[in-house]
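Reviewer comment 2.1 asked that we show a complete input and output for one of the modelled complexes. We chose the calcium ion case, as it is the one discussed in the main text.
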Amino acid sequence: MEQIEKKSILLVEDEEKLARFVELELTHEGYNVEKSGNGREALELALQNHYDLILLDIMLPGLNGLEVLRRLLKEKEVPVILLTARDAVMDKVSGLDAGAVDYITKPFAIEELLARIRVALKFHAGLPAGKNESAGGNEEGVIRWKDLTLDDRRHEVRYAGHEINLTNREFLMLKTLLENRDIVLSRDTLLNKVCGYDYAGETNVVDVYIRYLRSKIDDVFDIKMIRTVRGVGYVIKSE
Ligand code: CA
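Response of the prediction step:
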């Protein structure tokens, strides 16, 4: 099955035959592959471009793979799998200490490499993505809370697969609460978000929208998603 969005891999390996073989296999598996056979060049590539994963040989011309790893991870977070020689135990240890997610010993079976790549990509995608607003989800614009998913791009909310029909303002209210999990939002804050700063009405419209949301989600699925903090506002807790 073809992947919707191709993952990109930087392959850093100076043994050309091996590099070409791995590149071919990865491309066949549906990855976008870029190659480099030089440590210094690889570091520059990795710093300038986005890669979902880096396969990094250790013995490299230009700059040693471990040094590439150290300098790279100081600047950005990216999963790195080291390609190591059979007896290079210290390299493996140093590599993992320096932040590599895994290593594979040469010569390796391509199936094993592919499996390790899948694990590394999956594991990395599951980590909180730092600046990603929708912390907790790896798809862009999708926020998850327990069995609930809010897809901003599709303007869609689902609970355990069931679609929930929300009006624009209910949707915005829910999104605001989900994006600010564990933060109690005042009625004023919610009102500004949902109705805009020039809204002249009463802040109790917020209570009305909260009531609608509860009747469409909390009541239907018998959960307590939106909590009232008396005298302050509302919050969705992440626990
Ligand atoms: Ca090498």
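The domain at 142-236 is CATH 1.10.10.10 (Arc Repressor Mutant, subunit A). We note this here for comparison with the apo prediction described in Section 3.2.
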